[in-house]
Design a protein that fits this description.
Residues 1-14 have a biased composition (Polar residues). The protein is 73% helix and 3% strand. The protein is mostly helical. Strands 1-2-3 form a three-stranded antiparallel β-sheet, with helices on one face. Strands 4-7 form a two-stranded parallel ribbon. The protein has a two-stranded antiparallel sheet with strand order 5-6. It is globular and about 60 Å long.
């Protein structure tokens, strides 16, 4: 690792004279480590969350309630990425926003570490807010390290940054999950706080290597806009306080009074955002057509994430109660399953990229639409696979761990087909007016998918039942086939985008 951070022996001020990180600007090391530690804390806590919620030594909730809480939490993280980006653009600037976000996340994990159920949900809220603020702004700072979109190092820089995400996600369940499950749940949450604290410290120490633009507020609020924004925020906050005070004092309060509105927002807001953009009369005919095509991708992605993100809830809870979590007689913590996806991503992503290049040279690379449809079909197949361990458990036996490994493997293959394509098509099809907002719109597909899962759980649907799993699997496969069957129509709507 020491050789990756070098100083070229040339005169100061000449190109390449600055310290580099794998041949990239030194600031990438700061952002790489910040994201790695943030993901370490996020995925470590997330691996423990559903297990803690259902554990007798935890909150001892039903699987349905735990799945609902988990789904609401994940949907909020992605939903809050849009206001997080707004804060970076209009209030604090990206650098200050990320520093504050890291502090909020650390405080959230420390709150989770307190052995009291009353503070637990406040901790979840703080982590969700902090993650939303950080997620939108740290990627912006990565882009600012390079000299425009034509810098040949730019794509490679984001690839290195992406490795930081997966390194943190891989290590987190092995460390935080093991301590949380084997020693003490709250100690596990405290370790997540330590991880985020390390990320904040090194970010503050290394921020001098970031581009100067990261400290600039691109479009600061005017005095009038500040007053208007504060009034609106105060109004909605007061309304929520009054509403929940009435519900609480009347003796009708249950957890659903919080979870149901949040899940409904997770479905309604994405629909409203897409409808607002689609109805914008300032968009020209070509942009309107591309948005019509994009809605196909968005809905399909929501179906994908609805199933995929159950890998951390439905599958994890099933593994806890009904799987033989051992290899060759060696038992391992349930949370370790959450390390399978990131290690597969790191292993398979270069292979998939090489395959696309090889097919492209032969003129046989599948189109964006075919890749997207294939990703959907694969996530559906993963849930058809899930029917096997469900059947084994239904017969009174423990399902082998390899069944779950196989499910995560197929889901990861689907993710590699759909997620990079979704990110790419989002940037290519974004109307010029909404260029900076469309990445947030893409994240809303995750919000919509997870919110749908949360709603199903809240209204009594058992997501680990054979019929429901089969129905979800069929829905994904049918959606993938529909995208493929209508590929010519979607391609026409996409115009010159391929």
């Amino acid at each position: 690792m020491a050789s990756s951070l070098t100083k070229d022996s040339v005169q100061p001020g000449t190109p390449g004279s600055e310290k580099t990180f794998f041949g990239h600007p030194r600031g990438l090391a700061t952002l790489f480590m910040t994201e790695m530690w943030e993901r370490f804390s996020y995925y470590g806590m997330r691996a423990l969350l559903p297990l803690y919620l259902v554990a007798p030594g935890g909150l001892h909730m039903s699987a349905a309630t735990a799945t609902a809480i988990y789904s609401v939490y994940v949907s909020l993280v992605y939903l809050l990425a849009m206001p997080g980006g707004w804060f970076g653009d209009r209030v604090w600037g990206p650098r200050k926003t990320v520093a504050i976000a890291g502090g909020i996340i650390m405080l959230g994990h420390l709150t989770l570490a307190l052995p009291a159920s009353g503070t637990f949900f406040a901790g979840l809220g703080l982590v969700a807010i902090g993650s939303g603020l950080l997620k939108a702004n740290i990627s912006t700072m990565v882009g600012q390290l390079y000299k425009g979109p034509d810098d040949p190092r730019r794509d490679g820089g984001f690839t290195v940054f992406y490795m930081g995400i997966n390194l943190g996600a891989f290590a987190a369940p092995l460390v935080i999950g093991t301590i949380g499950e084997s020693v003490n749940w709250h100690l596990g949450f405290a370790l997540a706080a330590v991880g985020m604290g390390l990320g904040v410290v090194q970010f503050l120490l290394g921020s001098r290597h970031l581009d100067a633009r990261s400290s600039v507020v691109p479009k600061p609020l005017s005095a009038q806009e500040k007053v208007s924004t504060l009034r609106k925020a105060a109004f909605w906050a007061a309304l929520a306080v009054v509403f929940y005070a009435v519900v609480g004092f009347s003796g009708h309060y249950t957890l659903k009074w919080v979870l149901v509105p949040l899940t409904l927002l997770g479905v309604i807001i994405p629909v409203m955002v897409l409808a607002r953009i689609k109805r914008d009369k300032e968009l020209d005919r070509s942009e309107q057509s591309k948005m019509s095509a994009y809605i196909w991708f968005f809905v399909a992605a929501a179906v994908f994430w609805m199933i995929y993100d159950q890998g951390g809830s439905t599958l994890s809870i099933f593994a806890d109660s009904s799987a033989e979590n051992s290899v060759l007689g060696w038992n391992f913590p349930v949370s370790w399953y959450q390390s399978i996806n990131p290690v597969l991503i790191m292993s398979l992503a270069p292979v998939v990229a090489w395959i696309w290049l090889a097919l492209n040279r032969r003129g046989k690379e599948p189109s964006t639409i075919v890749k997207f449809a294939s990703g959907l079909v694969l996530v559906g197949i993963s849930f058809f696979l899930f029917l096997a361990p469900l059947s084994i458990a239904g017969g009174g036996h423990k399902a082998a761990a390899l069944w779950l490994v196989a499910i995560y493997f197929v889901q990861t293959c689907g993710e590699l087909l759909l997620s990079p394509v979704g990110l790419s098509v989002t940037t290519k099809m974004a109307p010029a007016k909404y260029a900076s907002q469309m990445m947030g719109v893409w994240f809303l597909a995750v919000t919509a998918g997870d919110a749908t899962t949360g709603l199903l759980s809240l209204f009594g649907v058992d997501l680990d039942k054979t019929g429901i799993v089969g129905l979800e699997a069929t829905l994904a496969v049918v959606a993938g086939l529909a995208v493929w069957m209508y590929r010519k129509r979607v391609k026409e709507l996409m115009g010159d985008i391929r």
